[in-house]
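[09:14] KT: can someone run the structure on this one? pasting the chain below
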Amino acid sequence: MPLIRPSSDLRNKYNEVSELCHKYAEPIFITKNGQGDLAVMSIETYERLVGKLELSKLLNEGLTDVNEGRVIPAEETFKQIEDNFK
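[09:31] RB: done, structure tokens below
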């Protein structure tokens, strides 16, 4: 269940909001005048989310390459890697 807090909590209860962000490792939704306004999260949660997005992008690029025939045999790839370390 999402955590929802009023915008006044950012000013009046910042430490409590920060602790919740770290404890639950998910965004806290901040409302302004009863309407959704912001999502606040810890740096760790943000970095994890961005990492997942980057990984998803790379996987999609790889799948596109496979589907379009832009592949080389694994043995050739490993040889190229080994040659780079010589």
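[09:33] KT: thanks! Strands lie at 3-6, 28-32, 35-40.
[09:34] RB: yep, looked fine to me
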